[in-house]
Design brief:
The complex is a heterotrimer of chains A (about 250), B (about 240) and C (about 675). Chain A is of the alpha+beta class and about 250 residues long. Chain A folds into two domains: about 110 residues, Roll (Ubiquitin-like (UB roll)), CATH 3.10.20.30; about 120 residues, Fumarate Reductase Iron-sulfur Protein, Chain B, domain 2. Chain A is built from nine helices and seven strands. In chain A, a hairpin with a 2-residue loop joins strand 6 and strand 7. The longest helix of chain A has 15 residues. The radius of gyration of chain A is 20 Å and the shape is elongated. The N and C termini of chain A lie far apart (about 60 Å). The relative contact order of chain A is 0.14. The model of chain A has no long low-confidence stretch (mean pLDDT about 95). With about 240 residues, chain B is mainly α. Chain B has a single domain, classed as 3 helical TM bundles of succinate and fumarate reductases (Up-down Bundle), CATH 1.20.1300.10. The longest helix of chain B is centred in the N-terminal third of the chain and has 30 residues. Chain B is elongated and about 60 Å long. Chain C has about 675 residues and is an alpha+beta fold. Classes of the chains: A alpha+beta (about 250), B mainly alpha (about 240), C alpha+beta (about 675). Chains A and C meet through helix 1, helix 2 and helix 3 of A and helix 3, helix 5, helix 6, helix 12 and helix 13 of C. Chain C: Keywords: Cell membrane, Electron transport, FAD, Flavoprotein, Membrane, Oxidoreductase, Transport. Chain C: Its cofactor is FAD. Chain C: It is an enzyme of class 1 (oxidoreductase).
């Protein structure tokens, strides 16, 4: 396949970036999207140019490092995958592909396609944990039975990979799906219930501070989420927060 | 902390949005119930509607509700504007290529525009009828009904507006456009309100969704039929 | 030999750890506040160590090259974590977990460490559940277990196919709690580029801020290296793209011995290589072997037809399939340990039975599992007169619930539906048992420098059992280091903070700067990846799944030559004073080019086959590994002397007092 790539290039956080166009030939449909960019970069470096930098690490869709807005959608046109699992067979010969960084005030661009997602870190630092020390004499793991359904729901919420696609897809750059997934995981488990009130208040406060937009329930986040994190989590957080605020 | 969080946080803004929005849905049903009386023809129609209008403007409970309605509309609009401004700020640099149509409905992304159209309609609508009724435009139409109540003749004003040979149909279409906007607004807003308040349960989600869609179609449709009925069907007065 | 003191406590095996904990020194809470600890790497080992040390009151600084501690490659571990809880009542115990691990490691692990690992394994599960890790549960609300390769009990706790993720998020949450308290300072997008020694003790690191390019000095009273394994020396591996040996290699060059570098695990169930541009390999959890059956065609001509696309695997009758693991190892069948399964796959493919275009793939088939689970479902749901198709559909649902995400991942990558046609798999480099030599306290040969998790060599011997990496990482971080480091740090209570404006820091920083500048200034003609790929090819072909002396000698020469070429001809664009991903890679590949040589040297010196190390010269007539306990029952710890080829061998003899050393048999 031969493709035209329109890629956002930006030297550093302060520089004004812009789209640059590259042609790439002989792309193998079995390549992953990032392998296609590897080939592009190999060529750029050989020419002595700086490669296009993008975040990536595990390349198996679990670490959540890779991002990229591809043709107007986070992680590209395929559903249920991260960019590193997106394969070139999803594109056609002659296609033009626009590649941009995730855009949000809370995700400033660091360089080219790399953005700073540390806002997510700070939201979790505000309360995304159970306050329990490592002692070696915590009560036995089976001492509190947990309904399988609840445990499974907590697990599904916890499969969020913190990639930021929800923010990137949302027209309001809202981080509700991410934050609610974290809140939900703990709200569903007896271990997390003890601190539930403080947790949800603190995490939402931090989320607001970071400058994310509001949720208008468009549902774009759920559709674009590579892990299929459900909107139910947002409703659960709304509920938890209301409870925490009123009671 | 708890109290201030309920006023200032992003979630609180959504609660208010949902709460006022859902309240206005209830209001719509009440309003529609009254309007449907315009479909009644014959002798008693005028008395019935005007008696109803009198009740609505004088009953203390209804008056409180109407104040709540006004406040809700105002709050819903102002809150909406604030949310929209915040949301714009959250992405100062937009995308070169953005394809939201692949992941969300048109109405869900255009609640602000739809809301603005609806707000404009509400202003015009109030000037047309409520203002006339309230601020003396109808004072010289007072008459006594069969029941012996002294009422303003809102009924005749309404019928004449939509039966106006030159402007009646224009008004009717104007109202139709507004109702289409309300339909799309409700199409997203109804379910969204439940979601924002955290009223979400896998077992009931699809029911809420279905009721929302039905509500978004039926209520505006009935509203929209009335002007056309008056223009085309109802005998002229 | 005197150099290596493993400091194993005296006394009976089961009492060693308890006694040791009672004997070692503690630091009082007020003094802990005056002590700084650096943790490099934030995976399960580093993250859990950082969180626990911070809970205790030490001032912790964590470093990771990723943009978040939670992205460390522990996150990719799929199958599960072992613990001797015996919740299933199937006869499990600390001793049995210890026994399985030592046996699985082919008797090349240190007894006392492994026993301690088994002893604390239960605590790990308790701790994780308390943190809110959502493990899989049964309908009764209690924790579920599955079985894993190389053992006869079900002791593996899991969270679908994302166990590593959930455990890492647990320890990340514990870290976040400490960051919020101000006890951990987390440096993300930072890479450690050297260790600083003051008076022979580890007293700090030089790190590069990967965003700004700034070279930073950080001091501490002790340094923990938990930076993972070095599988990426093969270029293609299941490791993350950024996984590297740099932190381990830098401390090796400063005096930490490197143990058993040739002990590398080749994981049997990975998605086969598809083409030249492949950047990494994807693992399919070993748990799939619980229900999947591995086979190749029985007849060569069938295999050939399949390779040409003339025949589909589903067309082949049962009697034309060779379930070679079940045939060779009837007792363990498809659940033999990883090294055995990998070699068996290679043996079949080398013999011409491979089933994909490259001839390097075997089938992992779930059709039997679909029917088995289907029949179970039919029975429990009291369905009468179910057709074969209905039974299969019900079975598919059960399998989907168990492994849905893995099947989906496979389909996305390969573009074939594994519910309809068997998966194709092939072994790939996955884990490195070798690593920095540590004593019982997990301290390296540099005082004050500790190594944990995959970065150290301690617990897995020559082969690691499935679901034991997560266990070891968390054991080291949650339950071992916090005690043993306290013992070391108790001598530092009056030291005060370590200044960074000393000549030791000056020198270390200067060296780091020089290396970075030299990469930029070489201005050669070939990219960093070019060299990395060539190194990977040498490693895979000559130091891979099976090794022999002539190949290893060649590899050593080739790696040396490649290293020289790299320094002469590498091309790194851009500058060092800003984000420069090529420069980052150059540093890592430079270290791999040195490690690769030591790796081959170690493999050459170990004239036996054991665990993941298979020397063709040393095998039984049936092709099984032939260990030489007489001459090689030791840990090979290498001391750096200026060139990897000149490393000096130190031996730590392994003594098995509580376990009978046998030939591993899974038949």
């Amino acid at each position: 396949m031969n493709l035209t790539l329109k890629i956002w290039r930006q030297k550093d956080a302060k520089a004004k970036g812009g789209i640059q166009t590259y042609q790439i030939a002989d792309v193998d449909p079995d390549m992953s999207f990032l392998e296609m960019l590897d080939v592009l970069n190999e060529g750029l470096v050989e020419k002595g140019e700086e490669p296009v930098v993008f975040d990536h690490d595990c390349r198996e869709g679990i670490c959540g490092t890779c991002s990229l807005q591809i043709n107007g959608e986070p992680h590209g046109p395929d559903r249920g995958v991260t960019t590193c699992q997106l394969h070139m067979r999803k594109f056609k010969d002659g296609d033009t592909i626009v590649i941009e960084p995730f855009r949000a005030k809370a995700f400033p661009v660091i360089k080219d396609l790399i953005v700073d997602r540390s806002a997510f870190e700070r939201i979790q630092q505000a309360g995304g944990y159970v306050s329990v020390n490592t002692s070696g004499n915590t009560q036995d793991a089976n001492s509190i039975p947990i309904e399988k359904e609840k445990a499974d729901a907590a697990f599904f919420a916890a499969t969020c990979i913190q990639c930021g696609a929800c923010v990137a897809a949302c027209k309001n750059a809202s981080a509700m799906l991410f934050t609610s997934a974290k809140v939900s995981q703990y709200a569903l488990l007896p271990q997390g219930k003890v601190e539930a009130t403080k947790r949800v208040l603190d995490m939402v406060e931090q989320m607001d501070k970071e400058g994310f937009g509001n949720c208008t329930n468009t549902g774009a986040c759920e559709i674009e989420c590579p892990k299929g994190i459900s909107l139910e989590n947002i409703a659960r957080m709304n509920r938890e927060y209301l409870k925490a605020s009123v009671v | 902390m708890a109290k201030s969080a309920l006023l200032k946080s992003s979630l609180a803004k959504k609660y208010w949005m949902a709460f006022t929005g859902l309240f206005l849905c209830v209001f719509l049903v009440g309003h529609l119930a009254g309007n449907l009386q315009l479909l009644v023809s014959g002798e008693g129609a005028r008395d019935q509607f005007n008696e109803y209008a009198l009740f609505m403007t004088t009953n203390p409970v209804v008056r409180i509700l109407s104040i709540v309605t006004f406040v809700s509309i105002l709050f819903h609009a102002i809150d909406g504007v604030i949310l929209t401004i915040n949301n714009r700020k959250a992405r100062p640099q937009g995308y070169v290529s953005f394809r939201p149509s692949t992941n969300s409905t048109w109405s869900s992304r255009n609640m602000g525009i739809l809301g603005t159209v609806i707000l404009a309609f509400i202003v015009i609508h109030l000037v047309n009828f409520w203002g006339e009724m309230k601020f003396g435009g109808l004072d010289n139409t007072m008459y006594t009904t069969a029941n012996g109540d002294e009422v303003k003749d809102l009924y005749s004003l309404t019928i004449m507006t939509f039966q106006d040979p030159e402007w009646g149909l224009v008004w009717a279409f104007g109202y139709l456009i507004a109702m289409i906007a309300i339909a799309f607004h409700l199409y997203h807003g109804f379910g969204s309100g439940f979601q924002s308040l955290g009223l979400n349960h896998p077992q009931y989600n699809s029911i809420v969704r279905k009721i929302g869609v039905a509500f978004a179609i039926i209520v505006p449709l009935l509203f929209a039929i009335i002007p056309f009925y008056i223009y085309f069907v109802l005998e002229t007065i | 030999m005197g150099v290596l003191d493993s400091k194993i406590p005296q006394g009976p095996l089961a009492d060693k750890w308890v006694k040791h904990k009672n004997d070692i020194n503690l630091v009082n809470p007020a003094n802990k506040r005056n002590i700084d600890v650096i943790v490099v790497g934030t995976g399960l080992a580093g993250g859990s160590a950082a969180a626990t040390l911070a809970e205790l009151g030490y001032n912790v600084k964590t470093f990771c090259y990723q943009d978040s501690p939670r992205r460390a490659h522990s996150i990719a571990a799929q199958g599960g974590i072992n613990a001797a809880k015996n919740y299933q009542g199937d006869g499990d115990s600390d001793y049995r977990l210890f026994y399985d691990t030592v046996k699985g490691g082919d008797y090349r692990a240190r007894e006392a460490n492994v026993y301690r690992l088994a002893q604390v394994s239960g605590n790990i599960i308790d701790q994780c559940v308390a943190q809110g890790v959502p493990f899989a549960r049964e309908y009764g609300g209690l924790l579920d277990n599955r079985s894993f390769g190389g053992v006869l009990v079900s002791r593996t706790f899991y969270a679908k196919g994302q166990t590593g993720q959930q455990l890492l998020l647990g320890c990340y949450s514990a870290m976040n709690r400490q960051i919020n308290r101000g006890k951990i300072k987390s440096y993300t997008r930072h890479e450690m580029l050297d260790l600083v020694l003051v008076g022979g003790k580890a007293r700090g690191i030089i790190a590069r801020n990967l965003v700004t390019g700034e070279i930073e000095r950080h001091s501490a009273h002790a340094v923990v290296i938990a930076s993972g394994g070095y599988g990426n020396v093969f270029f293609l591996s299941t490791n993350a793209m950024g996984s590297n040996v740099t932190a381990s290699w830098k401390i090796h060059k400063k005096g930490a011995f490197f143990a058993n570098p040739c002990f590398t695990q080749i994981h049997p169930t990975c998605i086969p290589v598809s083409g030249e541009h492949q950047s990494k390999l994807t693992l399919m959890s070993e748990s799939l072997r619980n229900d999947g059956r591995i086979w190749v065609p029985k007849k060569l001509e069938d295999a050939e037809k399949i390779r040409k696309g003339e025949l589909k695997p589903t067309d082949l009758a049962e009697e034309d399939r060779d379930y070679y693991l079940e045939r060779r190892y009837p007792a363990f069948g498809n659940l033999v340990p990883r090294d055995v399964a990998s070699r068996a796959a290679k043996e079949r493919c080398d013999a011409g039975y491979g089933v994909n275009k490259t001839g390097e793939a075997v089938y992992l088939d779930f059709s039997a599992a679909f029917m088995r689970y289907g029949r179970e479902a039919v029975a429990t749901q009291h369905i009468t007169n179910a057709t074969e198709e209905q039974i299969r559909d019900l079975g598919v649902k059960v399998v989907e619930a168990k492994y849905g995400n893995l099947f989906q991942m496979y389909e996305k990558i390969v573009d074939e539906d594994p519910y309809k046609t068997p998966m194709k798999i092939y072994p790939a480099v996955h884990y490195t048992m070798g690593g920095i030599w540590v004593d019982y306290n997990l301290e390296t040969t540099i005082p004050g420098c500790f190594a944990a998790g995959e970065a150290n060599f301690s617990d897995h011997g020559a082969n690691r059992l499935g679901a034991s990496a997560l266990m070891q990482g968390l054991a080291d971080g949650y339950f071992v280091l916090p005690y043993t480091m306290g013992d070391y740090l108790s001598k530092d209570i009056s030291t005060g903070s370590i200044p960074t404006d000393t000549k030791e820091f000056d020198e270390a920083e200067q060296k780091v700067r020089q290396q970075l500048e030299s990469f930029i200034n070489t201005k050669g003609t070939k990219t960093v990846d070019h060299f990395h790929k060539r190194l990977g090819k040498i490693m895979w072909n000559k130091v891979g799944m099976s090794r022999n002396a002539p190949n290893l000698r060649e590899a050593i020469q080739e790696i040396k030559a490649l290293r020289e070429e790299f320094y002469r001809d590498v091309k790194v664009p851009g500058t060092a004073d800003g984000m420069n991903t090529e420069l980052e890679k150059a540093g890592r590949v430079a270290d791999f080019l040195e490690l690769g040589e030591l790796f081959a040297k170690d493999a050459l010196h170990r004239e036996e086959s054991c665990g993941g190390h298979f020397r063709e010269e040393y095998q039984t007539e049936e092709g099984e590994a032939l260990r030489d306990d007489e001459n090689f029952m030791y840990v090979a710890a290498w001391e750096y002397t200026g060139e990897p080829g000149n490393a000096i061998l130190h031996k730590e003899n392994l003594e098995y007092e509580n376990i009978e050393v046998k030939t591993r048999s899974y038949k």
